[in-house]
Design a protein that fits this description.
Layout: H1 6-13, E1 30-31, E2 44-49, E3 57-67, E4 71-78, E5 83-93, E6 96-106, H2 113-139
Antiparallel strand pairs: 1-2, 2-3, 3-4, 4-5, 5-6
C-alpha cells in the first residue's frame, strides 16, 4: 500500500527507468536498453543481472499488455528463467494505492527445478520484492 494517487503511481511504475531504483544492489542490475519515458506494448527491455554466484546474465523482457492505470504485464523473452510472467496491478483504495505483484516463474533446471526453487530461487525473489517494498515505502 502506498499513500499516493493513481496518477503518481502509474507515472512512476510505467517509467521503465525506475526499475533500477527499486532493485537491490546485490543483483547487479543494469539496464542495457535506451528507454523511453513511458512503456508501451511490445517494448523490449534488456538488462544485465547477477542472480546467482555473481555471474552476469542478460535478461530481456517484453511489456506485453498495458491497461492504463490498472495493470501491465512483462514476460521474459530471454534470460535466466524458463518462464517469467509478471503482472503489476494497481488498485485504488481509501487513502492510496495497493500495488500487487503476481509472478509466475520456472527456473528451468530440469529435475532439480523443485529443489533449487525451494532452496534458492524463491528466497531470492522474496528478497527482491521485500527490498522493493522498503524502497517504495521510503520514496512515497
Amino acid at each position: 500500500f502506498l499513500p499516493i494517487d493513481i496518477n503518481t503511481a502509474w507515472n512512476f511504475f510505467s517509467d521503465p527507468r525506475n526499475l533500477e531504483k527499486i532493485t537491490p544492489p546485490w543483483l547487479g542490475f543494469k539496464i542495457l536498453s535506451n528507454l523511453p519515458d513511458k512503456m508501451f506494448p511490445g517494448m523490449l527491455v534488456a538488462y544485465k543481472v547477477n542472480p546467482l554466484l555473481g555471474l552476469p546474465v542478460t535478461w530481456v523482457t517484453q511489456i506485453n499488455v498495458i491497461y492504463e492505470k490498472t495493470f501491465f504485464i512483462d514476460e521474459q523473452k530471454f534470460g535466466p528463467f524458463k518462464l517469467w510472467h509478471h503482472k503489476h496491478t494497481f488498485i485504488e483504495r481509501d487513502g492510496g494505492i495497493e500495488v500487487i505483484d503476481e509472478v509466475t516463474y520456472s527456473p528451468g533446471f530440469g529435475f532439480l527445478s523443485g529443489i533449487i526453487t525451494r532452496m534458492i530461487v524463491s528466497k531470492k525473489i522474496e528478497e527482491i520484492f521485500s527490498f522493493r517494498k522498503d524502497v517504495l515505502n521510503k520514496l512515497f
